[in-house]
Amino acid sequence: MNHYTKGEWKAYHKGSGGYYVSNGRKVIADIEDFGEDESQTNAHLIAAAPVMYDILKVIKKYLDRPHCDAWRIAVDGKGEISLGDIIDKALAKAEREG
Length: 98
Fold this sequence. Notes:
Strand content: 15-25%
Order of helices and strands: EEEHEEH
Radius of gyration: 17 Å
Number of strands: 5
Helix content: 40-55%
Distance between the termini: 13 Å
């Protein structure tokens, strides 16, 4: 996924209510006014997406190393799942494959 809009994404409050996310040159997302807290949280989550994506790629690269035991975590009492599987699902969704 190298085709997302480059630059630092930041959340900005719109004077008319709601928020938007921009890299300073382009508007990435326009978030409607769902109430101050919800709109602000959504805007900041979207603004953090590129950084979170890059972090997941680094963690996945680490987990894919030879002799690296896949981390296993409990999921709501439903058994265990590997952290690598969770990351794969998140990256696939970000890369429009999931």
